[in-house]
């Protein structure tokens, strides 16, 4: 019987295909299946806010320029990492990250706790020419970010697509995406107030690239870098709780 | 969601193991089955055949 | 080459290219103001250009019936050339980005496309998909027909697969330069390129199955198993990992369906199995055919090759989690990944050992024949890097090695030492058979290439082992007062000499690839001259082919 069965599988190439798919995919499924219920195990973070349109645009620039190839955003639960970079990363912190940017290589330092660590001016100078600020750096210059105007006309569509994949943006956020992007980088302008109203009082509203008049890619990227690891304070709270 | 995380993990861990064992047994039976010896020998020598035309 | 297609196949080609041109036009119009439009124009130009090639031979007479008593090797020949072209391009960019890490101002221009972050995926995709993928497609068509003793069922679909695949590679590589990327490592191309690859891949799969169904051999030779696993599992991985919602159909940008920890797990399930089924399974298929063929000896143990096949197919799928040790991923998934990574060593070493045992008794051939030596060294590096991989999957080791250059060194031990070496060895065996010459143009150039490749790999891997371990140790070293001894920048400064050594190693390897291209080009020229001299010039390839494989 066994003999007959194998013959048949082998004679028929389709049977062979099914065997490979079966063997390979069940292994994958057993490992992957629990991940579709894994959100049940992710910590709660009621204080967590969403990326503003400007920060999301900045995040997309971070992706576009391939920053993730050299910078991780995932502090492991190892003593030296926590001492070097800050509280270790929690799963909840990247729950709105489509896709995640945990990274796999640290040619440069980890950025998971970068937000708020340096001034906007430092970031701008560093991105213009990293060696002006850190002489030994091997990071590329990103001069074009300050020259390129940021594309904002489609930010509402970006937010809507984010909502399609599960990020809870409200209708008001989507409708006002363009205005909020302008407002966040122009603190004295008429549109600045709406940003705090929709994304919380703690939101950074500043002329990130030092020039409130124009909205550049530099504005967006710095706005993003200043919020990395700052969407929720859950990691700091967990560390504090453990120390007590 | 009807199925909770714990039960999915439990199923994965237990049945995954059974599956691994069954799979290994199946492969070993197939490769060591005496009746298959001839076909394997033919397969491994026939690629060295120098005829470079499709079979009739 | 178009004249080798039947008239109806030429019509089919024109129809498909027309449809593709329309798709390109739609992308160009719908994606105005977005990088999508640039890709639209590339697709349009690509399909119109090929369309003219087909048109120019549209009214040529039908190819002779006698073609059916020969294998169909035109796509393999073109695939070999494309593969080598991608190899040189991809490795060149690799050397460039390696140099940028040693001398960051080497960009010359303050332009976005020339920065490290955009060039790096051009290197990875160029060598993995461009060089490796084309080599797999080209050799799989050759192996499939020979081991099945059956001609490919038609002449259109192999071209569709090969050319369609290269369009994907072109869209991918050009996309990174203009800032189109999903940021998922080794799956960077955006949604429309991903959809196109699915179409191409389905055609590849159907072609493979149809040929297998036509086979005259009772048993499917094991090399085909590995190629099949490569095709099937890569399809599954590709589709799942690339599930995403485009911003609109006029945007190149999309958002991954997964987020956070789920996305990380999916990504590394993909990433690790891309290594398993793209860079291992497919190339093992290559090894199981070309190594015994070149050595003139049957594989040492056929049974062992079957056991390791199922072992690899089964266990790789579980091992992805070792990329995420000590992260926010649940502990049990990490442990599972680590355990299977260790068990995986068994089938991996079984394959490497099987290959080396095949050569036992033919060591004089290995000594004299650089082509066979390429394959032998590839098997050794395969054994070494799978051992290293299992070792690095151990949590304690991983805590040191992760995020450092050690990972880069490990990847290159596999990519240069195993994947590239087995490919070059197979191509050196295959090229004389395909162009019906007795041997390659220059065995001495093969010898030169072999030593360049080996030296390049060793320099590269040792540089990265050193830098990785130093980096990892510096990050975790404490001084007497209990604080961290080194700043991050201290570790970066310490890397500088190793980054120079790495760029040098890469340069050696690239030089070897260029030598290979020269040798192949000269072999093709030699074949043309020989045919002209023999027949006064104008005889098609079909009439010329001898029944025996050249080089034997």
Keyword list:
heterotrimer; A: 244 residues; mainly alpha; Cytochrome Bc1 Complex, Chain D, domain 2; 2 domains; globular; C: 552 residues; Cytochrome C Oxidase, Chain A; iron (chain A); transmembrane helix (chain A)
Number of helices of chain A: 13
Q: Looking at this structure, what is the CATH superfamily of the largest domain in chain A?
A: Cytochrome c-like domain
Under CATH, the topology of the largest domain in chain A can be stated as Cytochrome Bc1 Complex, Chain D, domain 2
Radius of gyration of chain A: 23 Å
Radius of gyration of chain B: 21 Å
Assembly status: heterotrimer
Strand fraction of chain B: under 5%
Describe the structure.
The complex is a heterotrimer of chains A (244), B (56) and C (552). Chain A has 244 residues and is mainly alpha-helical. In chain A, 48% of the residues lie in helices and 0% in strands. In chain A, helix 1 (2-11) crosses helix 2 (13-32) and helix 5 packs across helix 12 (217-225). Chain A is globular, with a radius of gyration of 23 Å. The model of chain A has no long low-confidence stretch (mean pLDDT 89). Chain B is mostly helical and 56 residues long. Chain B has one domain. Chain B is 68% helix and 0% strand. In chain B, 14% of the residues are buried. The mean pLDDT of chain B is 80. Chain C is mostly helical. In chain C, strands 1-2 form a two-stranded antiparallel ribbon. The longest helix of chain C is centred in the C-terminal third of the chain and has 48 residues, at 488-535. Chains in contact: A-B, A-C, B-C. Chain A: The chain crosses the membrane at residues 12-36. Chain A: It comes from Shinella fusca. Chain A: Keywords: Heme, Iron, Membrane, Metal-binding, Transmembrane, Transmembrane helix. Chain A: Residues 53-229 form the Cytochrome c domain. Chain A: This is Cytochrome c oxidase cbb3-type subunit 2.
């Amino acid at each position: 019987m066994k003999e007959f069965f194998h013959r048949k599988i082998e004679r028929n190439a389709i049977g062979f295909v099914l065997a490979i798919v079966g063997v390979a995919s069940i292994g994958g499924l057993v490992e992957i299946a629990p991940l579709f219920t894994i959100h049940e195990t992710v910590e709660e973070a009621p204080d967590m806010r969403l990326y503003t349109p400007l920060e999301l645009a900045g995040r997309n620039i971070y992706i576009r320029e391939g920053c993730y190839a050299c910078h991780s955003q995932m502090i492991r639960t190892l003593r030296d990492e926590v001492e070097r970079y800050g509280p270790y990363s929690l799963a909840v912190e990247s729950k709105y990250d489509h896709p995640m940017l945990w990274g796999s290589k640290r040619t440069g330092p980890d950025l998971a706790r970068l937000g708020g660590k340096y001034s906007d001016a430092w970031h701008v100078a560093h991105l213009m020419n990293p060696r002006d600020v850190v002489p030994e750096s091997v990071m590329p210059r990103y001069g074009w970010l300050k020259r390129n105007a940021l594309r904002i006309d489609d930010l509402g569509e970006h937010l809507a697509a984010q909502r399609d994949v599960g990020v809870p943006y409200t209708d008001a956020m989507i409708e006002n995406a363009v205005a909020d992007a302008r407002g966040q980088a122009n603190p004295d302008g008429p549109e600045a107030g709406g940003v705090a109203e929709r994304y919380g009082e703690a939101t950074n509203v500043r002329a990130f690239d030092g020039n409130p008049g124009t909205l550049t890619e530099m504005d967006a990227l710095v706005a993003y870098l200043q919020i990395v690891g700052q969407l929720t304070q859950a990691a700091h709270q967990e560390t504090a709780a453990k120390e007590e | 969601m009807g199925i909770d995380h714990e039960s999915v993990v439990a199923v994965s861990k237990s049945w995954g193991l059974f599956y691994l064992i069954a799979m290994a047994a199946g492969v070993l039976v197939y490769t060591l089955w005496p009746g298959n010896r001839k076909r394997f020998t033919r397969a491994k020598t026939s690629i060295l055949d120098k005829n470079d035309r499709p079979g009739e | 080459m178009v004249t080798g297609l039947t008239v109806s196949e030429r019509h089919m080609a024109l129809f498909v290219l027309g449809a593709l041109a329309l798709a390109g036009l739609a992308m160009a119009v719908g994606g105005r103001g977005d990088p999508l439009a640039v890709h639209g124009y590339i697709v349009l130009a690509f399909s119109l250009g090929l369309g003219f090639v087909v048109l120019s031979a549209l009214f040529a007479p039908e190819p002779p019936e006698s073609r059916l008593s020969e294998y169909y090797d035109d796509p393999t020949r073109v695939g070999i050339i494309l593969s080598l072209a991608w190899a040189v391009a991809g490795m060149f960019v690799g050397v460039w980005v390696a140099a940028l890490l040693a001398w960051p101002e080497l960009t010359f221009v303050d332009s976005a496309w020339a920065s490290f972050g955009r060039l790096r995926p051009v290197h990875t995709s160029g060598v993995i998909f461009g060089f490796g993928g084309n080599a797999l497609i080209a050799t799989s068509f050759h192996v499939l027909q020979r081991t099945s003793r059956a001609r490919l069922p038609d002449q259109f679909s192999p071209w569709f697969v090969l050319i369609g695949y290269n369009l994907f590679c072109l869209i991918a590589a050009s996309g990174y330069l203009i800032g189109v990327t999903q940021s998922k490592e080794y799956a960077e191309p955006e949604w429309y390129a991903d959809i196109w690859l699915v179409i191409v891949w389905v055609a590849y799969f159907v072609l493979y199955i149809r040929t297998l169904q036509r086979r005259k051999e009772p048993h499917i030779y094991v090399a085909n198993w590995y190629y099949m696993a490569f095709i099937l599992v890569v399809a599954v991985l590709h589709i799942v990992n690339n599930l995403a919602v485009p911003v609109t159909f006029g945007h190149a940008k999309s958002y991954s369906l997964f987020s956070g920890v789920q996305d990380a797990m999916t990504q590394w399930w993909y990433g690790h199995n891309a290594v398993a089924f793209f860079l291992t399974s497919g190339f093992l298929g290559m090894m199981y055919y070309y190594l015994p063929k070149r050595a003139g000896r049957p594989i040492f143990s056929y049974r062992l090759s079957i056991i390791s096949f199922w072992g690899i197919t089964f266990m790789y799928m579980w091992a992805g989690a070792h990329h995420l040790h000590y992260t926010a991923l649940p502990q049990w998934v990490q442990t599972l990944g680590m355990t299977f990574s260790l068990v995986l060593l068994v089938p991996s070493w079984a394959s490497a050992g099987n290959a080396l045992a095949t050569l036992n008794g033919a060591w004089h051939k290995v000594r004299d024949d650089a082509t066979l030596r390429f394959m032998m060294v590839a098997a050794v590096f395969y054994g070494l890097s799978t051992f290293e991989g299992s070792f690095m999957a151990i949590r304690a080791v991983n805590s040191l090695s992760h995020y450092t250059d050690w990972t880069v060194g490990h990847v290159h031990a596999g990519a240069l030492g195993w994947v590239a070496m087995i490919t070059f060895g197979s191509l050196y065996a295959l090229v004389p058979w395909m162009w019906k010459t007795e041997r390659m143009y220059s065995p001495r150039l093969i010898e030169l290439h072999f030593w360049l490749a080996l030296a390049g790999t060793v320099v590269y891997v040792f540089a990265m082992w050193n830098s990785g371990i130093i980096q990892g140790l510096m990050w975790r070293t404490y001084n007497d007062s209990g604080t961290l001894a080194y700043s991050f920048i201290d570790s970066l400064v310490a890397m500088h000499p190793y980054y120079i050594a790495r760029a040098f190693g890469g340069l050696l390897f690239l030089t070897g690839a260029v030598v290979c291209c020269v040798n192949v080009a000269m072999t093709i020229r030699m074949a043309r001259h020989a045919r002209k001299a023999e027949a006064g010039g104008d005889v098609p390839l079909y009439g010329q082919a001898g029944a025996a494989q050249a080089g034997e």
